[in-house]
Amino acid sequence: MKSNASPRPQFETDENHSYFIVRLPVHSGIRKNDDQVSDHVAEKRVEDETVQVIDNKTGKFTKQMAQQDANQVSDQVWALLDVLSSGPLGAAVAMKKLNLKHRTYFRKIFLRPALDLGLIEMSQPDSPRSPSQEYGLSASGRNLIRNR
Q1: Could you please report the per-residue DSSP string of 66-114?
Q2: Element housing 12 (H / E)
Q3: What secondary structure letter does DSSP report for 37?
Q4: CB atoms within 10 A of CB 36
Q5: What is the pTM of this model?
Q6: Under 8 Å CB-to-CB from 19, ≥6 apart: which residues?
Q7: 94-133 pLDDT, tens per residue?
Q8: Alpha-carbon dihedral of residues 86, 88, 100, 146, nearest 10 degrees?
């Protein structure tokens, strides 16, 4: 970035260091494309199809929304999302509602893909094996269900 005179990256975190955001401001010489860059707003699409919008005048993160393609979500993940739409559940209760008996299968085919796509989140991310762990819809998961 330094070699092409791009602005320096900006880093942000909270006091507990539970997250961080890296902002890569748009170079002033970038070719303007109406779909991607306006005078002061840059949009970046990342691998999981999340759109991040940064206001380059204020340097503030202004919007983030999941644009998950419904075709990327398996039937099993859809079933899990439907079960969790009524509220967070523990793995055993979710498995019972899905009529599943094998925990490994549930974890591999239902739980892990939904977590990897960011559609669900753990109530205790620092203790993934906690007996009281529950799984609930993330904002992306709620948006995906709402836009189905």
Answers
A1: E---GGGS-HHHHHHHHHHTTS-EEHHHHHHHTT---HHHIIIIIIHHH
A2: strand 10-13
A3: B
A4: 14
A5: 0.55
A6: 13
A7: 999 999 999 999 999 999 999 988 999 999 999 989 999 9
A8: 50
